[in-house]
Hints:
The protein is mainly α. Helix content is 75%, strand content 0%.
Amino acid sequence: MPKQNYFSFVLTESDAGHLEALKRINEGQYTVLMHANPVDGKHLSYQQIADQLGIPLNTVKTRLHRARERIARWREKYAEANAQAPVQAEQQASQ
């Protein structure tokens, strides 16, 4: 799989799973994530984010890491649930 900016992908997708995943992270993680992936395309370094938010550099790194992990876990669960939904519907229809 080619390396890509995962969060640019997440933030440009419009399906409910991605939007729901963003709701699962806390406010601090969300704020750092939005600064790391701005809508206007002007990406900031971790240090620039830390300076703008007035928080330590390691806090920025930790919040981004935790947000990425949480979103990835939610996306996996969402994908599994959606993959099982058609199977469950088919099973119910055949009963």
